[in-house]
Design brief:
This protein is mainly beta. It is built from 1 helix and 11 strands, in the order E-E-E-E-E-E-H-E-E-E-E-E. It is 4% helix and 33% strand. The chain is globular, with a radius of gyration of 19 Å.
């Protein structure tokens, strides 16, 4: 489907995700805009993140995603650029079989402490399909122009 502003990808089937609140202050993930790729995740606790410190922060939710999908946890750009706060294990992966509490590991890269309150948006979550990938061992790989050149081999 094409419009005069943007091109829209049509999907035949939606990914259904079930959430369970396990803390009274928990907020379900939400998108602020219809065309956002990710859902905001919210803290269900208040705490102070000291300079250089990292903490697993409770969201107060659990979820069920279908087999063949994954959820990835990513930083919020505003927290990173304004406060030096980011997700430590970016991207964090949540597999379809996991049913425990969702935590976000934040780290403070700034020189100042940062306060997090109940209801603050602390990260983003994207739900994606996982491709069926098969691994094969071979004796030799096909050659390419680049070959084994890496880490800065194309210039800075």
């Amino acid at each position: 489907m094409t419009t005069n502003k943007t091109q829209t990808v049509q999907q035949n089937d939606s990914i259904i995700v079930k959430f369970k609140r396990v803390h009274p202050s928990a907020q379900l993930p939400e998108k602020k805009h219809e065309d956002d790729a990710c859902f905001d995740l919210y803290s269900c606790e208040s705490l102070v993140l000291k300079p250089g410190e990292f903490i697993g922060i409770e969201t107060g939710i659990q979820m069920e995603i279908p087999i063949g999908t994954e959820a990835t946890i990513r930083p919020r750009s505003g927290l990173a650029v304004r406060h030096g706060i980011t997700v430590l294990n970016t991207p964090g992966t949540i597999d379809a079989g996991y049913r425990g509490n969702i935590k976000v590991i934040l780290i403070n890269h700034s020189g100042k402490q940062y306060s997090i309150s109940v209801g603050d948006r602390i990260a983003q979550m994207k739900i994606e399909r996982v491709h069926d990938t098969r691994i094969f061992e071979v004796v030799q790989l096909d050659e390419t122009e680049r070959g084994a050149k890496g880490f800065g081999s194309t210039g800075y």
